[in-house]
Write a structure and sequence with these properties.
Length: 331
Amino acid sequence: MATLAEIRAKLQQQSAGKSSGTVGDNAIYPHWNIKEGQEAVVRFLPDKDPNNTFFWTERAMIKLPFAGVKGETSSGPVQVQVPCVEMWNETCPILSEVRTWFKDKSMEAMGRKYWKKRSYIFQGFVLTNPLTDDQTPENPIRRFIIGPQIFQIIRSALLDPEMENLPTDLNNGVDFRITKTSKGGYADYSTSKWSRRERALSEDERAAIDTHGLYDLGSFRPKKPTETELMVMKQMFEDSVNGEAYDPQKYGQYFKPSGMTTGTTATQYNAPMAPSGATEVVQEVAQPVVTESKPAEQTQPSQPNTQASAESSSSRAEDILKLIRSRQKAQ
């Protein structure tokens, strides 16, 4: 288990830019379902992986929206999630294109639409649960899908020299209070905070760890795409930008919308890390931060409301595709 000093050192290193299981049960605690004004108290636990400095793992996904499904007139819009290979410190073929869009302000909304969405996977106990319909599983060690807003609160406290002990310490750790309010029509968690008092784990909590063991959080990240899958991702991206329908014949064996049954064996990149409807997970941000011409990570682009704006968006999409294809011909 990493020490608090080691975690601080790695967080600071990342800030300087130098750092390099089934999901179908109810092990995931849906904190986004708590009502406004309610609070859930949790206790985070270490990762089982001794090589993970942190007690969380990062997950970065790109959402590709499609107008529908080819051959299905009543399907309506669908969305496919693909993993961003920057999780493995490699060049993402989609973001390589999207980054250039932010040099043109008229394309920023389109860029944000295709920018990677970060979330962070933690594990621990739920101590105070305001969700009356949530049933604690036999294994009380739950998983948490934490968005950027809550994560920044966790991260900032770890860098605070006044925090003397690792919050996951079994004897001297602290609990975390997830408080939900609202801001601008979205869920807001900016008042969430660490408890002030340290607390040793109870006998029941220690027994649960002994009985069930801890999760290897890395096992809940998507599988790293192969070279073939990277090419498929790029083709899907181009189809999405062009406003085309999702083609299950072309892509079904590689990627597909969550819940779609196509008769093929698709890699489960789209198995939800949180139950459907957990949209607040990807809206957890109070004030977007833009660095190095990258977009604010969870900001939703404004939707066009008129025919003129729709035509403008279509024109930009065509320009983007021409740029992508001209680069491919030059390679």
